[in-house]
């Protein structure tokens, strides 16, 4: 009798726990972020318009076009390739909600791996959401994962054979949109995502593609611009200028020719577009930290990393101030603007003139949320749920 | 017009940003044709090339030149870029036709195992290659400039790859240029003092543009 009651009790407890987490995961997967098309947005499209097989899938996502008054160069800004590196989407939304262009075109994909943004990493105790404070309240974001959700792309192979180079990559990389470039229209879902982006670059004749990321402080390729040979001069001069004029270091790392599937390698090899990949330090992703809290995500303060810094184990300067989100987003804003500026100086016939985007010092002073509009006060037709 | 103003602002910026160096000696004047190259195969050689571009100094570049290529002068024997081997010929060939002997060589110091690996070099290979180039320059009167613009990330513990690259070039240079962050421990100052080599130390890599302009003034 006692054994029977015990079994029932255990079953009820397990079901209660499962139901509780299921409700949380369901809510996270279906939470829609309101994205406000700012005054510079002239057209909104879906990624599936560049690869039909994405239509109706969880990988489809919005694309925003900001066309200038005059023709000029074209830039593609890709954010949330890895949805657990949120400085990317925060930067993209600053451009999307504020930028206006006098010359040239800016194309923004704020949630490139849409499926990944609806995935989480429960084993690492990731928070499901984080909030950014604004003057009108707070803006709530999904905290996603590095890879697409297995609910959307499954099963994984034993080994991911990269297309078209046949390089053998980790099985997980088949769901990683920074390993599936240049993609194909009939491949696994994430290959179709990168293929669609390649089609944007080919059809729209994009000059510059900037893929925004974050990287651990213990990883050598952090706080940098990764660029292949065709982009390295512009990356180098942009790096020198932000260092001298805005006071932060952002060195250049060459894109390795033998490591396939990455945006900074394949975009340049498979199109006329010049790729750049931006990395800002994100202490949250380092392994030896305390709990993976929202506070760590936003402020980047951690006692374990501080001790490692004292032992010179980190690849970036690190002190009690951590690496706050404002610093990371501000760096991204300035580096993106400087890359476009240097491209324009080198290619006067393809000039890009962009205004109303804050630089590093302004974002540090005002905070990230200062640049987000109140959804309650904008035309509902300018709000896109993604 | 906006482009013109932009260019002027850029050049003024490079000139106005304070040098704030701790060791500002007179900049020695040298001559073109000039070859840029790497000591350690890090990406800092791209920084060096951009600095020369900004200073409007025409140059030839090869990341792994042989002494034979250098002795063949401007044009680097017509060599073409390939896997792990990069060449640029930007020298004004009307003023300095192919084969004109180089007067100056500038090394960008900074070790990258990835870069050396891409060129099929071990650390020992790279040091031997650099030593033979320096020997060639010394015996042919080619002015050697050592640039360390990578800051702390291109420094390391004694005996590390970065420090070995510094040892391979800096003590044999005719002029050393560094950024503050590269010389926090005074290593370059010590080399310069011991070997009586002029040293310029600047805050930012962009400041080197002004030095290069002075170095090659006609």
Q: Can you offer a commentary on this structure?
A:
The complex is a heterodimer of chains A (386) and B (218). Chain A has nine helices and 15 strands. With 386 residues, chain A is α/β, with parallel strands linked by helices. Chain A has one domain: 3-Layer(aba) Sandwich (Aminopeptidase), CATH 3.40.630.10. In chain A, strands 2, 3, 4, 5, 10, 11, 12, 13 and 14 form a nine-stranded mixed β-sheet that branches. A two-stranded antiparallel sheet of chain A has the order 1-15. In chain A, strands 6-7 form a two-stranded antiparallel ribbon. In chain A, β8 and β9 form a beta hairpin. In chain A, α2 packs across α8 and α4 packs across α8. The termini of chain A are far apart. With 218 residues, chain B is of the alpha/beta class. Chain B has one domain: Rossmann fold, CATH 3.40.50. Chain B has eight helices and seven strands, in the order αβαβαββααβαβαβα. Chain B has a seven-stranded mixed β-sheet, sandwiched between helices. In chain B, β5, α6 and β6 form a beta-alpha-beta unit. The longest helix of chain B is centred in the middle third of the chain and has 18 residues. The radius of gyration of chain B is 17 Å and the shape is globular.
């Amino acid at each position: 009798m006692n054994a029977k009651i015990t079994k029932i009790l255990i079953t009820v407890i397990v079901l209660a726990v499962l139901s509780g987490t299921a409700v949380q995961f369901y809510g996270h997967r279906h939470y829609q972020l309101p994205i406000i098309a700012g005054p510079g947005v002239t057209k909104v499209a879906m990624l599936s318009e560049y690869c039909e097989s994405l239509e109706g899938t969880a990988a489809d996502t919005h694309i925003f076009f900001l066309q200038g008054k005059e023709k000029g160069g074209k830039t593609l800004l890709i954010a949330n390739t890895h949805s657990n590196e949120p400085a990317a989407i925060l930067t993209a939304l600053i451009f999307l909600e504020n930028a206006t262009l006098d010359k040239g075109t800016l194309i923004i994909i704020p949630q490139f791996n849409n499926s990944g943004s609806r995935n989480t990493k429960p084993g690492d105790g990731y928070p499901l959401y984080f909030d950014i404070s604004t003057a009108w309240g707070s803006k709530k974001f999904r905290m996603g994962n590095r890879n697409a959700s297995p609910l959307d792309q499954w099963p994984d192979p034993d080994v991911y054979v990269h297309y078209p180079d046949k390089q053998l990559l980790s099985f997980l990389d088949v769901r990683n949109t920074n390993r599936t470039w240049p993609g194909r229209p009939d491949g696994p879902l994430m290959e179709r995502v990168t293929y669609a982006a390649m089609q944007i670059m080919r059809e729209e004749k994009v000059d510059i593609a900037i893929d925004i990321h974050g990287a651990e402080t213990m990883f050598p390729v952090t706080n940098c611009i990764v660029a292949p040979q065709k982009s390295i001069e512009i990356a180098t001069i942009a790096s020198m200028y932000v260092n001298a004029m805005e006071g932060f270091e952002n060195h250049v790392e060459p894109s390795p020719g033998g490591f396939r599937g990455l945006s900074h390698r394949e975009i340049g090899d498979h199109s006329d577009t010049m790729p750049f990949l931006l990395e800002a330090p994100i202490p949250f992703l380092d392994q030896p930290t305390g709990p993976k809290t929202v506070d760590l995500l936003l402020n980047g303060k951690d006692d374990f990393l501080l001790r490692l810094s004292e032992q010179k184990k980190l690849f970036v300067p690190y002190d009690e101030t951590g690496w706050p989100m404002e610093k990371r987003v501000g760096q991204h804003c300035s580096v993106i603007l400087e890359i476009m500026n240097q491209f324009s100086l080198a290619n006067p016939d393809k000039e890009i003139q962009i205004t109303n985007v804050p630089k590093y010092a302004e974002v540090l002073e005002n905070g990230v949320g200062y640049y987000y509009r109140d959804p309650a006060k904008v035309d509902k037709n300018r709000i896109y749920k993604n | 017009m906006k482009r013109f103003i932009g260019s002027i602002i850029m050049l003024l910026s490079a000139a106005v940003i304070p040098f704030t160096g701790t060791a500002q000696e007179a900049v020695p004047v040298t001559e073109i044709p000039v070859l840029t190259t790497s000591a350690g195969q890090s990406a800092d050689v791209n920084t060096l090339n951009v600095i020369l571009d900004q200073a409007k100094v025409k140059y030839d570049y090869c990341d792994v030149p042989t002494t034979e290529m250098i002795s063949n002068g401007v044009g680097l024997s017509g060599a073409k870029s390939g896997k792990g081997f990069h060449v640029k010929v930007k020298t004004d060939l009307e003023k300095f036709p192919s084969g004109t002997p180089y007067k100056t060589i500038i090394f960008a110091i900074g070790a990258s195992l990835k870069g050396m690996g891409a060129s099929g070099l071990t650390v020992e290979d790279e040091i031997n290659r650099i030593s033979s180039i320096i020997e060639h320059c010394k015996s042919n009167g080619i002015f050697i400039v050592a640039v360390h613009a990578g800051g702390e990330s291109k420094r390391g513990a004694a005996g590390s790859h970065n420090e070995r690259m510094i040892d391979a070039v800096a003590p044999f240079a005719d002029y050393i240029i560094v950024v503050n962050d590269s010389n926090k421990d005074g290593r370059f100052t010590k080399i310069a003092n011991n070997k009586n080599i002029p040293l310029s130390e600047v805050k930012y890599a962009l400041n080197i543009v002004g030095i290069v302009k002075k170095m090659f003034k006609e």
